[in-house]
Every structure is written in C-alpha cells, then in structure tokens.
TrEMBL record:
MF terms in GO: chloride channel activity; protein dimerization activity
Keyword DNA repair: no
Keyword Glycoprotein: yes
Membrane topology, from the record: Multi-pass membrane protein
Family indicated by similarity: Belongs to the anoctamin family.
Domain Anoctamin dimerisation: residue ranges: 3-196
Primary subcellular site in the record, as a coarse category: membrane
Protein name per the record: Anoctamin
Regions that span the bilayer: 210-237, 288-308, 378-400, 420-441, 464-485, 579-601, 635-658, 717-746
Lineage start: Eukaryota, Metazoa, Chordata, Craniata, Vertebrata
Span of domain Anoctamin transmembrane: 199-760
Length: 789
C-alpha cells in the first residue's frame, strides 16, 4: 500500500511539472533509506508564483535613501559587510503575472526567485497534490502531511545550499548558509547587527520577522537595564541611610523587641534583630528608586511597542508584505481544513465554490471550556499545595534553626533564616511543577486547536497562541501573584489568626523586612531556572559529528536528513519563551530592578544560540510568510496595560514605601523628616497585660490589649490604606496619560515608508498602463502590416 501511494503521488507530481530524481537505497549511507529529490523548473515556478501572487521586482527603487545618521562612523564596529546586510538591490515590486513576464526585471531565470520563495512554491504543490488514482474518487487523500503521518515518507524538507562550516564547491552557489554561520550564528558576533535581509532570503519572512523582533526587543532592553541598574546602585549607595534597618539590627531597639510566634506549635518567640540581614537586603529593592523605576517601565513598555510597530511597518514594505494578510486568508488554506470539508458554498467575493465545515463549534467550545477549567484547576491545586508546603515546612525550619545551627556555615550561614529557607525551597519546588505542567499543556493545547480545524495557518497559530499563553500565564505567574498580593494580607492577629481553608495551617506572614524580598527571590529562581532548563534542552544533534565525512560519501540530503526537524511550531515556542520573560520584566519589575539586566544578558546569548541552532542543528525549514508577530502583538499590548496596574499595587501593598512615607510626613513624633521610631510605630502589641513577660509584637496597625478598641485597626491603618489607594490611582492615571500621549505622538508607519508605498502603487499602475499601451501598439502595427501585405 505504501509503495502504491508513493508511486501515484510521485506520478502526480510529475504531471504538475516537477522533476523527480530517485536515489536508490543502496547509495545511501545506511543502505535502507531512499531519497526523492525534487526540482521545480521555471515553468512551474512561474505558474505558481502567478497563483500565489508573489511580488517580484519590476523597477529599481528611485527614492533616495536619507536614513544616514549623524556621527554614523560610531556604529562601524557593529556593522556587517554590505553584501551580507543587503544581499539584493532595492526594487519596486508587483504581483507576478506569467503572461506579462517581460514586464518584470528577469535577468536570470535560475536566480529570479529567491531560495525561500522557491521552496515555498514547491511545498505549496506538495501539500495539495493527491496520492489517489483518478478512478478511485477519494479526493481527501492528498498532501505531504498525510503521507508523513501514515509513514509513506519519513521526512520532507528543503535542502541547505552548503555545509555550514565551508563554502560549496559549486561556483554558482551563493553558500548563504555558510555566510549566516560565519557572520550571524557565532557568539563572538554578539555585538554585531543581524543580517536580517539574508535571513529572510534564506529562511523566509516568518523567521526573519522573529529575529527582527527579538533583536529589537534586546536593543530596547538595554535602556531598561541601565535605568534598573542605576536604581539598584542607588539602593546600594543609600545603604547606610536606611534608618529602619539600623533600628531592626540595633540591640537597643531590635534586640529588645520580642516578636510573636509565626506558627502555633513549634515556633517560639523571637527577637526582631534576627531579621537584620533580610531587612538590609530588602532595602536594595525597596527604596524611592523603586517608585521611579516602576513609572519608567510603564513608559518604556509603550515606547517599545510603538517603535516596534514602526520597525515592523518598515519591514513589511521592504519585504513586500504590505498586502499579505488578505493573500494569506484567501489562498493559504490548511490542507487539513480542505480534507475535512465535506460541503461547498459560494464565496460572495470571488463568486467561486469554496470548502466549509458544518457547524460543530458548539461541541468544540464545550470541550475547550471543560479542558481549560480542568487545567486551571490543576494549576490552582498545585499552588495550594506549594502554599501548604510553605506553611508546614516553615514550622519545621523554625524548630530546627531555633538554636541557630546554621551560624557555623561560612559566608552564607548568617543569612539563612526560616523565612529564607522556606521561600527558596518553595520557589524551587514551584519551578519544577511549572516545568512539568508545561509538558502537559503543550500537548493538550495542540490537541484542542486541531479539534477546532482552523481554516488558515495564520488562524491556527493565533488560536494556539492564545490558548498556550493563557495557560502559561497562570502557570508561571500565579506563585508571583500569591507572594505579591496575598501573602501576609489575610493573617489575622494573636488570638484570632486566619487559617488556610479551616485547616490547622496558619496563613503566612511577611517578616518585618516585608514580602518584597520574597517576591524578588521567586523571580530570580524562576527566571534563572527557566534559562538553565532551556539550555539543557538545546542538545546537539548528529550534525556535530559529520564534519569529518567527505560529501562524496555522505551526501547533502543525507546530512540534512540527520538534522533535527524544525517543525511548524518551531518559532511558536521561541516566541512563548520571550513573551513569558517579557511578563517577568514588566509585571513584577518594581520588586526586582535587575530583571531587565538579566533578560538583556539572556537575550544577547539567545539571539546567537537560536541562530546557531537554525544554521547547524535543524533541517532547513519550509519558508513561510508573515507580515507581523501575529497574536503576540495583542498579548504584549495587554501585558503592557496590566503591568502598570500590577506595579502600582506592588509599590502600594507589597512594598513598605507608602507606610514609611505616611509615618515620616504625619506620624513622626518629633516632627522631623526622618524615619526614627518607624519600626516601633509599625508593630502592634499582643498578650496579657497582667503577665508582661508574655507581651509580644506583630506586624500590623491595631490597638493594644486593654484599649477600648482592643485589636481593632488604628486610625493610622486607615490613613495608610487611603494613601495606598491614592497612590495607585495617581500612578495609573499618570502612566496611562503618558502612554496614550506617547502612542498618539508616534505614528505607527514612518512617513518615508508611507511615501514609498504610495509611490510603488502609483508606479505599478503607471508602468502596467504603459506596458499594455506598448503591447497594443505592437499588435496594431503588426495588424496594419499584415493588411498592407
């Protein structure tokens, strides 16, 4: 049956006009694999370029390039050679028309269509060619994907043009893979610009757009990293001005304050100065610079997204993608959709019969809803499990460390506290759970999207993107939301503590240093662990071991076959990784100003690692067109808005910035603008007045025992709450106003690009008109000559 399918499929490919060359099994290295080499002659390329309306050059661009920057010589060390950056001249383009081929600038038919266009055309034919005989009548049996799924073929891929470590021996071959490896994939080129035009020419627009976005994102991170580092340095330089930490660490204040037990049975009373180190650490991230940086990042996000739109608009024009979306929707139907369609209906626009699916969306919607609820419930269950772990283990750590057995450890010993040990171990466990759940989510999201049978490749990717991101959003960020907005907020007070779901586990408290340092710890562990995990997954393929084999014994197609398959969703996971990182540096950046710096270092490596994988480890992917980053753009916009809200709440409710300012301006007993007495003011008392030895302090603003409003909130608590809410409202309005003003001021499409698009459309009409007129003159002159004869 497999032989019959192959025979029919290959015969049908030849009918279309493709040229096939079959390599015998005995000629392959393993003696078991047979290769079918496919070549598309000019007639086939021209025919399908007309069908796909591929844009090709018809006139050299005559608009002068005025993009020269002042002091341009400063960028010389970061530039690549001109023939690498701009492998092709700049042309005005128009959709190809086979009947008017002499209208276009065709110098050499062998090189007129770039490699990415050629392999896209061939794949378009392969994905729609049937493998049934005409007399069978089973028209659903078509497409290379189905043949791969039923094991008729084991792989289908375009060939690389050369080995990556040396040029091709063919003088006519441009050896673009070698050029990309030499100038792009090497880590020593990390400070160089990316050859995006060459990437687009060799791999296609979709991969080119990804690397353009990643490079632009990395460049913009440089500014955020500089400002974040300055804020961190500010916290370090104002270390000695930290009055409240001095009070916590001093024997006169912190050494005399006895704190209430943090758990019911195994925890004892403890001295406030035992949290001395964590309070100093907290000051590095919880200072005035934090507020400034949170506001700055809200504006930075807007600038990043607005300038990316401009960069994307320029690439759309330069790469002939201006009208691509309409083309995608009309022509690029997924073969899976076409084979599932049992009905036909009239398209009101084209007036042609087209396939459509019967209404099954209600069933699919119910399945998606049920699966989504189950997945989110599983995440919530895991979070509750980690919280329960934190509550139970804290008591154990507190009991073990009661006599400070860790102080004998050099360097790290004095910093290890029950709070830190609990936070670090819980964060590590949470990270492992995140990675395990990721593996399950990917498969389920793909399965649900396949059930929906999207009509186009673009629609398929957008649906999958939204599902995967929503699940990953809850998976990655839920623990950070817990630490930032829930931990220490619903604790109760001595004698009336709150317990988790009625259990014997008391809700967690923040130590006097605040919960911000715990949120910082959580971010560092998840961000660092995620990158280590990704690096571990990037294992070398067999390609690392073929450099010693001569090409005469180990052919190019065999070399490529032994590489890893890139897959249709190869870029999807790269985007997902970067967008999750984008969430960490925007949603919670107020707690960790060094997050952009960590992301910058990671991305500098990421660009070159991704380039190295693509050029050395993967088969050449089938070229695909994309005019933008797709649904990721809307996701980034949504996260940009949410980040303003989350950072405002972090500064207000997780940081101690607002309580300190309220104390300094309204409750400082001496009326001075300093923080003396803040620690004593921020702690409430609890215990029995008749047994003074049992009096202890806890973090809250409540009246002491014996007062007529015993354990009720004081007026200072309500003043602080009002200040927090006022800060949130003011910060959000200021940042949003600035965001909207910046977005209004910066046009999405640069003026020169808009002018070029208009000129190109004008020239297409003018040149086509002149072409038709000249053609008509020639016909008339011939007719006149015939009549005269």
């Amino acid at each position: 049956l497999l032989k019959e399918r192959r025979k029919v499929y290959e015969a049908n490919l030849e009918k279309v006009g493709l040229e096939l060359e079959i390599e015998d099994k005995s000629e392959s290295e393993d003696g078991k694999t047979s290769f079918v080499k496919i070549h598309a002659p000019w007639e086939v390329l021209a025919t399908y370029a007309d069908v796909l309306k591929i844009k090709v050059p018809f006139k050299v661009n005559d608009i002068p390039d005025n993009s020269e920057m002042p002091m341009n010589w400063l960028s010389t060390p970061f530039r690549l050679p001109e023939h690498i950056m701009h492998p092709e001249p700049d042309f005005f383009t128009a959709p190809f028309n086979k009947s008017k081929s002499d209208f276009f600038l065709i110098d050499n038919k062998d090189t007129f269509f770039p490699p990415s266009t050629r392999n896209r055309i061939v794949y378009y034919i392969l994905s729609r060619c049937s493998y049934f005989r005409d007399e069978c009548g089973d028209k659903d049996k078509k497409g290379i994907k189905r043949l791969l799924n039923n094991s008729t073929y084991t792989a289908a891929f375009p060939l690389h043009d050369s080995r990556y470590w040396k040029r091709s021996r063919d003088a006519n071959c441009e050896s673009e893979r070698f050029s990309l490896y030499k100038h792009w994939a090497g880590f020593l080129s990390f400070f160089k610009e990316q050859p995006l035009n060459l990437v687009r020419k060799y791999y296609g627009e979709k991969i080119g757009i990804y690397f353009a976005w990643l490079g632009f994102y990395t460049e913009m991170l440089l500014f955020a990293a500089i400002v974040g580092t300055i804020c961190f340095i500010y916290g370090f330089l104002t270390y000695d001005d930290n009055e409240w930490s001095k009070e916590i660490c001093s024997e006169a204040v912190g050494g005399k304050i006895v704190m209430c037990p943090l758990c019911d049975k195994k925890c004892g009373y403890w001295k406030l100065n035992s949290t001395c180190n964590s309070s100093w650490q907290s000051h590095l991230f919880d200072n005035v610079g934090t507020v400034f940086f949170a506001i700055f990042m809200g504006i930075w996000v807007t600038l990043f997204l607005e300038f990316w739109k401009r960069r994307q608009a320029r690439l759309e024009y330069e790469w002939d993608l201006v009208d691509f979306e309409e083309e995608q929707q009309q022509l690029q139907l997924r073969p899976e959709y076409e084979t599932k369609c049992t009905n036909r209906k009239m398209n009101r626009i084209t007036q042609e019969m087209e396939p459509y699916l019967p209404i099954t969306s209600k069933f699919v919607f119910h399945v998606v809803t049920v699966v989504s609820v189950l997945k989110i419930s599983l995440i919530i269950a895991c979070i509750i499990g980690v919280i329960a772990y934190r509550l139970a283990v804290y008591a154990a750590f507190a009991s073990i460390m009661k006599d400070s057995p860790t102080t004998h450890l050099q360097v790290v010993g004095p910093f290890i506290t029950p709070q830190l040990a609990t936070s670090v171990t819980a964060s590590c466990i949470n990270f492992v759970i995140i990675m395990i759940l990721n593996l399950m989510y990917e498969r389920v999201a793909v399965w649900i999207t396949d059930m929906e049978i999207p009509k186009t490749h673009l629609e398929y990717e957008n649906k999958l993107t939204v599902k995967m991101f929503l699940f990953q959003f809850v998976n990655y960020y839920s623990s950070c939301f817990y630490v930032a907005f829930f931990k220490g907020k619903f604790v109760g007070y001595p004698g009336d503590y709150a317990y988790m779901f009625g259990s014997k586990l008391r809700n967690e408290e923040c130590d006097p240093g605040g919960c911000l340092i715990e949120l910082t710890t959580q971010l560092v562990i998840v961000m660092t662990g995620k990158q280590v995990w990704v690096l571990q997954l990037n294992q070398p393929s067999k390609a690392q071991f073929i450099r010693g084999h001569p090409e005469s014994l180990y052919s190019r197609w065999e070399q490529d076959h032994d590489l890893q398959g890139f897959g249709q969703l190869g870029l999807f996971y790269e985007y997902l990784e970067m967008v999750i990182q984008f969430g960490f540096i925007t949603l919670f950046v107020a707690s960790f100003p060094l997050a952009p710096l960590m992301a910058l270092i990671n991305n500098i490596i990421e660009v070159r690692v991704d380039a190295w994988k693509l050029t050395t480890q993967f088969r050449r992917p089938v070229a695909a067109k994309a005019h933008s980053i797709g649904a990721w753009q809307e996701i980034l916009n949504g996260m940009a808005v949410l980040s303003v809200v989350t950072n405002a709440f972090i500064v207000a409710f997780t940081s101690d910035m607002i309580p300190r300012l309220v104390y300094m301006y309204a409750y400082q007993p001496e009326g001075e603008m300093n923080m003396k007495g803040y620690i004593n003011n921020s702690l409430s008392s609890a215990g029995n007045l008749h047994l003074l030895l049992l009096l202890c302090r806890y973090r809250d603003y409540r009246y002491p025992p014996g007062h007529e409003k015993e354990y009720s909130h004081t007026m200072q608590f309500w003043h602080i709450l009002a200040a927090k809410l006022a800060f949130i409202i003011i910060m959000e309005h200021v940042v949003f106003l600035v965001k909207f003003f910046v977005a209004w001021m910066i046009p999405d499409v640069p003026s020169d690009v808009r002018a070029r698009v208009k000129r190109e459309r004008y020239l297409v009409q003018e040149y086509l008109h002149n072409y038709e007129v000249e053609k008509l003159k020639v016909q008339l002159s011939q007719n006149t000559h015939d009549e005269t004869w």
